[in-house]
Amino acid sequence: MTLIVKDSNGNELKDGDSVMVIKDLKVKGTSVTLKRGTVVKNIRLTGDEGLIECNAEKVKGLVLKTEFLKKA
After folding, report:
1. Which CATH superfamily is domain 5-71 in?
2. CA distances from 63 to 1, 47, 54 (A)
3. For residue 68, what pLDDT is reported?
4. Phi, psi at residue 45, to the nearest 5°?
5. What is the arithmetic mean of pLDDT over 2-18?
6. What's the pLDDT tens digit per position in 12-59?
7. What is the residue extent of each domain of the chain?
8. Residues 35, 24: contact at Cβ < 8 Å?
9. From CA 25, how far away is CA 14, in angstroms rounded?
10. Distance (Å, rounded) from C-alpha 36 to C-alpha 51?
């Protein structure tokens, strides 16, 4: 069974895609806030259909929920 990961609009996401944050997100454990409209490049899929891994701005190894992302 293949895992299908979708963004907030229902578009399918794949490894290496770029996504845009649709809501300001505070990053736990840091003082960084990912602003709405921030583009995150080169995402990696996890084993969970609701989560992706990425590197954004000053935060490495970030895990984001797909409900706050849309494909760029």
Report:
1. SH3 Domains (2.30.30.40)
2. 23, 12, 6
3. 97
4. -80, 145
5. 95
6. 999 999 999 999 999 999 999 999 999 999 999 999 999 999 998 889
7. 5-71
8. yes
9. 22
10. 18
**Going by DSSP bridges, is the β-strand pair 12-13/44-45 parallel, antiparallel, or unpaired?**
unpaired
Task: Give the whole-angstrom CA distance, residue 16 versus residue 38.
Answer: 16
**Cα 57-72-3 angle, rounded to 5 deg:** 95
Q: Where are the beta strands (DSSP E) in the chain?
A: 5-6, 12-13, 19-21, 25-26, 33-34, 39-40, 44-45, 51-56, 59-65, 69-71
End-to-end CA distance of the chain: 27
pLDDT of residue 1: 67
Parallel, antiparallel, or unpaired: how do β-strands 51-56 and 59-65 relate? antiparallel
